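Quick one, T. Sequence first:
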Amino acid sequence: MFDQYYRILGLENRASKDEIKSAYRYLAKKYHPDVSEESDAGKKFIDISEAYEILMNRKIIDDLHVSTMDATERKFTYEFFAQRARENAKKAAEMRYEKLQTEHEAFQKSGMYDVILLLNYALHGILVLLSVFLLTFPVYIAVKEQYFDVFFFYIPGLLLVFYIFSERRRFFRLGTFYYNYQELKKLIHDESGTGSKPCAYSQGKPADAYPFKISLLKIHNITLQLSGVLRHRASYQRSYEKLAIPRSKISYRVHTFGSVIKILSILFTLAWSPLGSFIWNFIIGMVIGAVLAFMAGLVFRVRSKVSFLLTINLIGKILAWIIMIVLFTDFSAWPELQTHYYFLAGFSVCFFCRIYLWNH
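Structure tokens:
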């Protein structure tokens, strides 16, 4: 009975529970509706979940198999509970897949799916450029400056090349966008405010422009199931709540200006800043863009659309990163700031490890 379920998970008979969990996580992620584009991904996901439920509860079925003395009764009891276990596992797998599909559709409609997908494509392109830089920069420095102490760049460079090569089949096939140009145009036109509500960002102005939308993940119905010593299971439900915050035309224009000016400030400082450090140029560009956006909001009396994100925890993380960057920066040749190569190497290794662990 169990052989087919081990084959579904790609395991040998009598694999440990840790091996079953590991195989299930890998295959469930592979055929997850957010990732897989295969036509039968739904069926495979259900089969994988069914196999996981059966094998994780195999001991219960085995105990039933040996709990009676009569051979006929033992066989009948075993087959009855085994069938019930299969039915329950399949039902749970189907319900899990339906819930994931519903959440996935809500996530796509929220627009965050396309934003994250676009950022993923951009990130993968940056990783390719970064790997080329890390492998060619030491050679350039060695030939031009006769300086050979930067060859440790090869460590993160080779790690990135290894990661890109291992994911080569889907490295630039991350998925298709949910919204196209016509749908976005229609969405903006249909959802623009009519002026019947007040603007949430500018006092006394009617909300007659496209609202600011945010998607919030809500965790609810958290339960803990106990069925014996060292046998417990936590479960929860999650749903996405989409909020549309009404905006006036002046608020929409100020917010758009703020987003554009932040991008332009970063590009300007990266291209023309006298500081020699890419990291510090990027940080200064972000600060200049944030200050200009804040000043525009003060002039037109429009509140920031993302001020709620600036929490104490986020401020603490930002300060921690800045302190670490300061410690790895050489200020002796001001204004030519030099961030120590060890920071870039360490950051690249940590970033690679995080991506590798996330995908495995």
